[in-house]
Amino acid sequence: MNSKYEAVIGLEVHVQLLTDTKTFCGCPNKFGNDPNTNVCPVCMGHPGVLPVLNKKVVEFAILLGLATNCKINEKSIFARKNYFYPDLPKGWQTSQFELPICEHGYLDVTKADGTTKRLGITRIHMEEDAGKLIHDQGPSSLVDLNRCGTPLLEIVSEPDMRDAEDAYSYLTQLKQIVTYLGVCDGNMEEGSLRCDANVSIRLKGETELGTKTEVKNMNSFKNVQKAIDVEIERQIDIVEDDGKIVQQTLLWDADLNEVKPMRSKEESHDYRYFPEPDLMPVVVDEKWKAQIADTMPELPIARKNRFIDEYNLPVQDAELLTSERELADYYETILHDTKDYKSASNWVMGDILKEINERKISPVDFPVSPANIAKLINLINDGTISSKIAKEIFPDMLEGDKDPKKIVETKGLVQISDTSLLEEVIGNIIDNNPAQVKQYLEGKDKVIGFFVGQVMKETKGKANPGVVNKMLKEKLDELK
Ligand code: ADP
Ligand code: MG
Ligand code: ZN
What's the pLDDT at 1? Predict the structure, then answer.
């Protein structure tokens, strides 16, 4: 990036709420059903119907507002955002405009260099989604209204981000928070979390904001990052060529790695917002707010810090383990049965996460129970098996959550720590490898690794490496 300029970025994030029913009617809030089956006169926008606000939507909004350090407005109102589109039979989207439910929040994100940066949240408001147009089923387009009235929260950030990395960190943390709270599944590929990026540039040192564009249609965090970088470069090129930035909405094309103009940007007055006459103001009193605050789970940053303090884990471990609530839960359940925090972390971050990612499953559906992972760790720590054997029996455990102790017993894999059993093996290996013995006696201590390897091979990995090491040294030193 040309160092004369700095970028200014603000994000508008929509999250689809995991409520059972829609925002203003009792229709199921479900996806994947046949088109136009989860509908009623209210969400189809028939004349004369009256909306009834889903209490759960307000509770989710308050919960997210509290989790993102927002002020919860005691009174907020719904507004009609009027526009015409075939997927919006009512002719307006019920949203919030002048008085949203949450305002003035922030997220603290950690930069790559370890410093913290505070990124402001302007507002969070409640709104409903529109339906869907289907264009690939013949010559004309079809309308599916199942999604009409699906509850959304829109989280609008301050223009506080200065590069794509800021935007990525903000999004990552926001996704963690909504999934920890259970208000949204956070799946960007499937569209339950959507992000539009507002981008402008200005000369460094300038305090006024430049003209912004809004980039839409990114379906992954990586694409948000890429789209922002591409848009910053595009704007710099224009300004460097003495051109002017045109305020407009752009669509990200992930295949071509470029942005394309979609429409000139509408202004808010184009929507003729006005207070929704069919809904009462939403009033949140202190008591209700406190009740909701009581249900607040431990949030990702707090949990990460606790993992560092309580379990003495390195920052990277704590970060990865708490990146998903279910993964952190899995890890902590292992600790019910073992106090070896670091080994448990290693197993989760290594073999377990590898399986979870390969199988594309949630930690909740991981086939081995945390209790059996704890047993495995304890078998290593009490000397029953070597870590090598542990790695070998792990695939067996994957088949139906088998007790590692039973596997070890049935397969006869108990570690050999008995010196009298190892004596003969070690003696033979020393006799059969005079060249390596000579090297050792000439001071090449490292060759001890070769002997350990031979013993492990001979005992099929069952020898206790600590015991073998000690015995080998004694035997070889006797030859000096
Ligand atoms: P609009 O009415 O065009 O939607 P808003 O004022 O609601 O604009 O802001 C939308 C988003 O754009 C917010 O996240 C805000 O922080 C961001 N934003 C506003 N002005 C700029 C700018 N000049 N450059 C980058 N982002 C901006
Ligand atoms: Mg806006
Ligand atoms: Zn309905």
Answer: 67
User: Which residue bears the tokens 């009512």?
Assistant: 90
Question: Residue 265's pLDDT is what?
Answer: 64
Atom of ligand 1 nearest to the CA of 200: 24
CA proximity to 123, closest of 163, 94, 153: 153
In 3D space, the residue among 196, 171, 169, 197 whose CA is nearest the CA of residue 184 turns out to be 171
Q: Is the CB of 210 under 6 A from ligand 1?
A: yes
Tell how far the Cα of 45 is from the centroid of ligand 3, in angstroms: 9
Q: Which of 107, 158, 212 to mutate to test the pocket of ligand 1 (most atoms within 8 A of CB)?
A: 212
242, 275 Cβ separation under 8 angstroms:
no
Instruction: Name the region of 100 (left: φ>0; alpha: ψ -120 to 50; beta: rest).
Output: beta
pLDDT in tens, 222-250: 999 999 999 999 999 999 999 999 999 99
- Are the beta carbons of 24 and 52 closer than 8 angstroms? yes
Query: Which CATH entry fits the domain spanning 419-478: 1.10.1060.10, 1.10.10.410, 3.10.690.10, 1.20.1560.10?
Result: 1.10.10.410
- Domain locations in the chain as residue ranges: 5-291, 300-411, 419-478
Which tens digit of pLDDT belongs to each residue from 255-310? 999 999 887 766 767 889 999 999 999 999 999 999 999 999 999 999 999 999 99
Does 213 sit in the ligand 1 pocket, CB within 6 Å?
no
Nearby residues of 248 by Cβ (< 8 Å), 6 or more positions away: 213, 214, 261, 262, 263, 264, 265
260-293 burial code (b ≥16 CB/10 A, e <16): eeeeebeeeeebebeebeebeebebeeeeeeebe
Of the listed ligands, the closest to the CA of 162 is: 1
pLDDT at site 269: 74
Q: What protein residues have CB closer than 5 angstroms to ion ligand 3? A: 25, 27, 40, 42-43
CB 3 within 8 A of CB 203: no
Which ligand places an atom closest to the C-alpha of 122?
1
158 CB near ligand 1 (under 6 Å): yes
Query: What does the alpha-carbon distance between residue 69 and residue 449 come to, in Å, rounded to a whole number?
Result: 56
Which ligand 1 atom is nearest residue 211's CA?
Answer: 23
Give the pLDDT score at 460.
80
For the CA of 44, the nearest ligand: 3
Contacts of 245 (CB under 8 A, 6+ apart): 200, 201, 210, 211, 212, 213, 235, 238, 239
For ligand 1, whether the C-beta of 159 sits within 6 Å is: yes
Residue of the nearest CA to atom 24 in ligand 1? 200
**What is the three-class DSSP state of 429?**
helix
For ligand 1, whether the C-beta of 10 sits within 6 Å is: yes
